[in-house]
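ok trying this again, last paste got cut off
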Amino acid sequence: MSHLDSYGSIEPRGRDRAARPALPWPEHDLGPGSRVRQAYAEQPVVTWTPEEYDEARTDDQPTLVPGHPDFERAWSSGPAPADGPDSHHPVGAAGPDPYPGPEGDPYAVPAAGPEPGSAPDPSAHEPAHDPSGPAGTAEPAPERPPGRWRGRRRPIRGGGSAAAHGRSSRAGRNLPAAIAVGLVLGALILVPLFTVIEAFLGVLAVAVAVGMWEMGRAVGRADARPPMLPLIAGGVLTVGLAWWSGPDALVLGLLVTLAATLVWRLAEGKAGLGRDMTAATLIAVYVPFLAGFAALLAAVPGDGHLRVLVTLVAVVLSDTGGYAAGANFGKRKMAPTISPSKSWEGFYGSVGAAALGSALLIWLLFDVAPWWGALFGVAVSVAAVLGDLAESMIKRDLGIKDMSNLLPGHGGLMDRLDSILFAVPTAYLLLAVFAPVVS
C-alpha cells in the first residue's frame, strides 16, 4: 500500500520507506493556505526605476533590475516568460523553468529535465499520482506564490510603489514639490537680501542652526553624540563674527566653537571623547565655517547683495543644467559608488549652464569681461558638484538617503545647502580677484 507524497513521489509506508533528508522548513508550511504562501502573498511589490533604486540603496553592489543597462547581460540564464517577468507560472506549466530557484527552494523545478534548446515536454512537470487510488485524486504541485520571481530575479519589495513615495521624476524627485519649495526658499533669501540686508543675516543664522541640527542627527547613526548646544550657539556666533569683523573673525569663531564644545564634552566624561569631538569638528567646519563666507559676501559695502546673487544664480544654473542634461542624456556614471544618479553628461550640463549664465550676469552687474564671468561660473559649478558629492559620501557612509524630511521634494535643508556651502568660499575668493572691493 502506498500513499500520495506531496513532493511528487510514491513511497511505501512503514519501515521499508527510505529516509528522506530533513527540509529546512516544516512540511506543513508548504501546502495551500500555509503560512509560507500567505507571507509571500502579503508582501507588496515596489516597481522602481534603476535610478530610483540606485538612489535608495546604501551598498556598493551593482543595480540589477529590469531596465538597467547591465540587466540582460547579468541575467542571461534563459528567456523571460512570454507574458513578462512579473507573471505567475505554476510549476506544472509547460516548458522548463528559465529561472531555477536555489537548492532547497520548494518552488524550484527538479534538476532532471529536457536539454537546453530541445522541445519542452508537457508531461515533464506533471505531479505524480498513486495508480492504485482513484483516478484524478492526485494533489497538484504547489503553485508559485503571487509576486515572487524564480531564482534571484525577484521584484524589489517595500511599503508601496514609487508613486506612493512621491517620486514623479526620472531623477527620483517629486518635481512639483521640489519646485514649490525651491521658490519659497529663494524668496526667503532674495527678499531680505534686496530690502533689509541685516535680515539676510538672520536667515543665514537660522539656516546654519537647522543644518547643524540635521548633521547632529545624522552622525548619531554612527553612535557619535557631539554636544549640540555649544555647537549650534558657536556656529551662529561664527556667522555673526564674519558679518561684523571679516575673515579673521570667522576663523576665531570656529576656534572658539571647538574649544567650548571640547570643554562641554569633557564635563560628560572621557568615554567616546575622540569619536564625539571628531563629529563635532566635522559639523563646525562643514556648516557654520563654510556658511560664514556667505556672510562675508553679503557684508561687502555697496554691492554685497549682488555678490550673493551671482553666486546663488550660478549654483541654481549648475543644478538645473545638470538635472536637465543628466535626465535626458545621462549614460556614463560619474561616481557610481558615491552618487549613482550623477553622470558625466549631467556634469557637462552643469558647467555649461553656469558658465553661460555667469558670463552674462557678471558682465552686466560688475562690468567684468565675459570670459572672466565664464571662468567664475565654471569654478562655482565644479565646487557645487564637489559639495554635492561630499555630502553624498557622508550620507552613504552613515547609511542614510536624506539628512531629514524637512523639505518636501528635497529631503533636509542640508540636502539643499550642500552645493552652496562649497560654492560660497570659491565665489568669495574669485570675486575678490575679478571685482575687488574699492574702499
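PB: full thing came through this time. The chain has a mean pLDDT of 76.
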